[in-house]
Structures are given as structure tokens and as C-alpha cells.
Amino acid sequence: MAGKKISPWVKGALDWGPLVIFFIAFNRLKDGHYEILGRDYSGFIVATALFVPLIAISTLILWRLTGKLSPMQIATLVLVLIFGGLSVWLNDPVFFKMKPTIIYLLFAGILGAGLLRGKAWLQLVMEEALPMEHEGWMILTKRFVGLFVALAVANEIVWRSMSDSIWVDFKTFGLPIILIGFIMAQAKLFERYGIEKTSEDSAPPE
User: Fold this and answer.
1) Residue 54: how many other CB atoms lie within 10 Å
2) Is 155 exposed, middle or buried (0-12, 13-18, 19+ CB in 10 A)?
3) I need a surface site. Which of 22, 39, 115, 132 has the fewest CB within 10 A?
């Protein structure tokens, strides 16, 4: 069942708002240490503690407005709650830094499992916005599997070998830019396998 349509501005604010707030909070708090309920926390952990409930609230609002959530949105929320919660509870940022790696490997594994069965499960998420022939979806899904594996490896390299500030910049700006650039690079695939709306769909009502 199709969900309700909402303003792209509202959807963008709900999708990106928590990450932007995390970025701002981290940069304001990163040089300090904060005592909360008798425990000493770094600015990274405090920013994480702010991000986790914000993404839960934004996802809930998105669900209430649209009436649906994609499997990727649900998986992302669950992993944020688990790994973000572990970082705050154990006062260890490593768990939160590992979250993108786990998310990307999970997505790659799910899409890869579908490919082994001859199915392009990415189509279930994106078909409404991007109608394509089945062959096009199979090719795009294979490319996304490779992308997600590469992003998982890149995240591991960055958080393990670079500073918290560089990792936060990479997560906030680097990963989205790579994803957007990847999608734009598929223009020829979309052009070759795209399906135009039928005249019945586009014709005005009689």
C-alpha cells in the first residue's frame, strides 16, 4: 500500500535533521568533558546521546506522516538504537563508529541474498520513484552491493586510523556525497532501462 505524500522539505528535514544536529553538537562539545549523574562523558558521547532519541523521534514522525517506513529506515533505526545506546551506556564511542559499517554490510548482505535468488530487492524500495525494467534493477542492485561493501571498508579505515573530528566530517558529509555521486553516475543505466509512464497513467481524467 502506497504511503501518503509529504513535502520533500519536511522529509529532508526529518531524514537529515538528526545528523546535522549531531554534527553541530559534536563540534560545540568535542573539546570538553561533562559530568552527568556522576559519570564523566566526552563531547562525542554527549552528542551521540542527543542523536539517538532525535533519530527515533524523527523516524516516528515520518511514519505518522507517511504511514510507512522502508526496510532500510527500520534497520537503520534499530542499529542506531543498539550501537548508539551501547556507546552511551558503556561510555565508549567505538560502538557508534562501527554502526555505519554494520549498516552497510547488512544492506549489502540483504541485497546480495536477493540477487542469489534472482531478485532485485532494491526495486521494492525505489521502484515508485524510479520505474525500470527488471534487468536494470538487477544491474543497479549489483552495483549497490559493491558500493555498500566499499563504504563499510572506508568507514572502518577512517574511524580506526583518523581523529574523531575527521570521522564525524566523513559521516556527515563524505558518505552522503559519495552516495549522491554514485546515484548520479547511474544516469546512463536509468536512461537505458527506464520505463516511461503509460499514456493511461499520464492522460487527464475524462
Assistant:
1) 18
2) buried
3) 39
- Per this entry, what is the length of the chain? 206
Say if CB 132 and CB 195 are below 8 A apart: yes
The predicted-structure confidence for 148-201, as pLDDT tens digits, reads as follows 999 999 999 999 999 999 999 999 999 999 999 999 999 999 999 988 754 444
User: What is the pTM assigned to this prediction?
Assistant: 0.84
Domain spans in the chain, listed from the N-terminal domain onward? 1-88, 93-196
